[in-house]
Every structure is written in C-alpha cells, then in structure tokens.
Amino acid sequence: MVESRAAAVQELRARFAAGQTRPAEWRAAQLRGVLRMATEMEAEICDALHADLGKPKTEAHVHELSLIKSSCLFALKNLKKWMKPQKVPAKLMNFPSTARITPEPLGLVLVISAWNYPLLLSLDPVIGAIAAGNAVALKPSEGAPAMSSLLAELLPRFVDGTCIKVIEGGVKETTALLNQKWDKIFYTGNSRVGRVVMAAAAKHLTPAVLELGGKCPVVVDSNVDLHIAAKRIAAGKWGCNNGQACIAPDFIITTQAFAPKLLESLKKVLEKFYGKDPLLSADLSRVVNASHFGRLKGLMDEEMVSDIVFGGQRDEQQLKIAPTIFLDVPLDSAIMKEEIFGPLLPILTVDKIHESFGLINSMAKPLAAYLFTRDSELQNQFEGAISAGGMLFNDTSIHLTNPYLPFGGVGESGTGAYHGKFSFDAFSHRKAVMNRGFAGEARARYPPYSAPKLKI
Ligand code: NAD
Predict the structure, then answer these.
(1) Which family does it belong to (predicted)?
(2) Is any atom of ligand 1 closer than 6 Å to the C-beta of 64?
(3) Which of 211, 341, 365, 416 has the greatest CB tally within 10 Å of its CB?
(4) What single string gives the DSSP state of each residue in 60-104?
(5) pTM for the full model?
(6) Residue 98 bridge partners (DSSP)
C-alpha cells in the first residue's frame, strides 16, 4: 500500500516531467472528462452525498454538482486566454526590449480535501490544477468515505489516470503524502491541521493554499426586509449542510431592540422550511459523524449557554440535530470561542449596531462576514472596518458562486484563494520573461565605472 502510494506519486512526477499535462488539448480533455463525470454520474454522486451526510438531493445538485459543472465550463471557455502570455510594458532603461508574463504549471500538486462538500472541495481545486497544466494527486476526506471511494473509482474512468490520481486515506496516509515533495499543496479543512500542512510544506519550501474556516458573523440592522433577511440567513445556515459549511453564518449580532423581531421571523421561516419536527425533515442534512455530534452536544449542553430560544431537539442514533438558536450567550462560552460548524446559531445583542464592528474585530478574521442593512453608509463603514476573506451584503454564502471573485480566507481563515481565474493562478507560476536584442548598449553599465566612457 505504502509502496503503491509512492509509486503513484513517482508516476505523476514522471508524467509531468515528460510534458504530458502541458498542452491545451490535454487540459481541455481532462476538464471535459470531469464535466462528463459530473453529468453522467449524478445519481451515484447524490447517493454518496446522502450516505455520507444525509445531504438532500437539491443541495447535492445546487451546491456541489452544478458548481463543479460551471467551474469546468468556465475553465474550458477561458483556458486559451488564461494560458496566453500577457504582454507588459517595458521601461526606457531596458530599451530596446519586450516583456511578458508567461504562466507555467507548477508541476505535481497535492489537493487535500474536507468532508463537508466532499465532491466540490475535491474537484474544484483539481479543475484549477488541471487547467494550469499540472499533474494532480487528490486526497479526499476519510470523513466522507462514500464520496472518497466513489471518486477513487470514477475519476480514472473519466480523466487521464496517469496524471490525475486519487489517493485515499486518513491521517496516517495524509501524513505520508505530506512527507513527500510537492510543487504546491492545496488544503481544505480546519486550522489545526492547516498548521500541520504548512509546517510540512515549509520543509520542502513548497507553497501552500490553506482554505480554512472560522466564525462567520452576520450583522443584522433594524431597517431590513425582515422576512427576506430571515430566509437568507436560514438558507445559508441550515440550508447548507445543516450548518456544516465553512461560510455558514456562525453567529448573529443585532440590537437588543430588534432581536425579538428577528428571532420571531427566523422561527417562522424555520417552521416553514423544516416543519414542526425538523428531525423528521428530509431537507436537513445530518451531522457527519458521532464525534462531531458529541462536540455539538457539548456546545449545546454547556451550562453557560442553556438559553436555547428555539429548537434543541436531537437524535443521537440518527445523528440529527434540529436548527437551534441561542440568545445572548457569554462571549467566553465554548460556542463563541470555537467555530460551530453545525446547526447551532447564537444571537448576540448590542445597544447600537456599530458596536458589532469592535466585537467582530476582537475575534480571528473570518472567512466571510455578512451585513444586512439598507444603509449604504453602514455598508461602507463595515467594508472599511472589517477584515474577512469575503464579504456579502444582504445575503449569505452566495458570493462563492461568482467565479470573478476570489474565494479564500485571510489571517486564521486561510491563505491563498481560488475559483475562476484565481484557481488557474493558484496553480501557476507567473514567469517574468524579458527579451532583448543586441542593440542598445549603455556604456555606463560596465566597469571600470570611474574611467572615461569610451566605446566598448
Ligand atoms: P476533515 O476532517 O475532512 O480534514 C480535512 C483533511 O485533512 C482530510 O483530508 C484529512 O484526511 C486531513 N487531515 C486530518 N487530520 C490530519 C493530520 N493530522 N495531518 C494531515 N492531514 C490531516 O475536515 P475538517 O478539518 O473537519 O473540516 C472542517 C473545517 O474545514 C472547518 O474549519 C471548515 O470551516 C473548514 N472548511 C473550509 C473550507 C474553505 O473552503 N475555506 C471549506 C470546507 C471546510
């Protein structure tokens, strides 16, 4: 097994060195292969997502399959343009010369993916790596075992398996992979392991993209369309894998005066979405495994946060937890100290909405920050004052669907970004190329510097 893993990596490196992955035709053929896989294998993919997470079919389509398909189509449409060297101006001191930036593939890249969107988070970086002309090893998450083995089975049927390989495994296997030398590592997951990945990459001076998480705040002003705001918050939280999403709202901040109205509206929306007994709803994903269930149970049961104002039902056998809202939990409670990554949503209250800025800035920089308001001045102030991987006004989560926006964190929520052209760039080296002829000698350039400048 160990030997076959090493042999697989060796083969990938040899194929890259042989130039197999560089031609535009090869890249386009692989992208078409991924697209075909996402189209022809929809049923198998939906089944795997349901087996791993109880993910509703609609979420599987909208949040995973369709995003993969549109990433492939976008890359296919733009591939030639992205690959083209970009001419840049030349300075007079370099006269005569021309200059360009030539994107080149980095070589052999390792993609380590997470369990919560196990198709999307595996294939979306792979699409970027292929478009940029690299050989790729994909290590899916053992936390989503059905998708991991499905990818291992399917991908070689649709793409060139000599240059794109799926290597399955858990911590032991990933550690072994990380000990090898890569030309880029792309990791999605928690920040504790992010540090492990960064340390392993540093040993070989390998650049790494870290797509991590954090606590994404949602600030809600009192001038909003309450029903729409509540629906969009609920969709971004519980409608995205039941809160197990990196950009899901982690907590809300609103004013004391407005909190009861917001809470009422959220309750109404949730009852409409998931019925009186959400544990029976087929539209709500389950918690991924017993260990995460235990972690979330611990957050719910912490004495300090006993103020559940909505929900709270859970079923350990089925690994299901209902949408659950807390009001005014202490800032030093575990639920406010760690990323929740599940269906629990605390609402914090402040006197004035501007107090939310200080609160957010006292915490680690989030992957996404959301503000609901009709006040454009407040939006400007929020944009200026809050550092976050991404920012979205009057909605949650959907900024990730725009391929013209980079997707990634800042500070503890990650480093590097991808999506659209940013994916191509993440897996390319931008080579600086200057071209001169033999004219244009500047005598002052050559020693002896102090001697009269004679023609040389
Ligand atoms: P996970 O358990 O699937 O782990 C991620 C990957 O790390 C897996 O492939 C796993 O094999 C590997 N891994 C785990 N322990 C390791 C170790 N000790 N050494 C080497 N590799 C190891 O996923 P997770 O970490 O539970 O994912 C949830 C976290 O990921 C959350 O913090 C979430 O916010 C974040 N996340 C971020 C994004 C993003 O795009 N920024 C997307 C999804 C999830």
Answers:
(1) Belongs to the aldehyde dehydrogenase family.
(2) no
(3) 211
(4) IIIIIIHHHHHHHHHHHHHHHHHHS-EEE---GGG-SEEEEEEEE
(5) 0.97
(6) 435
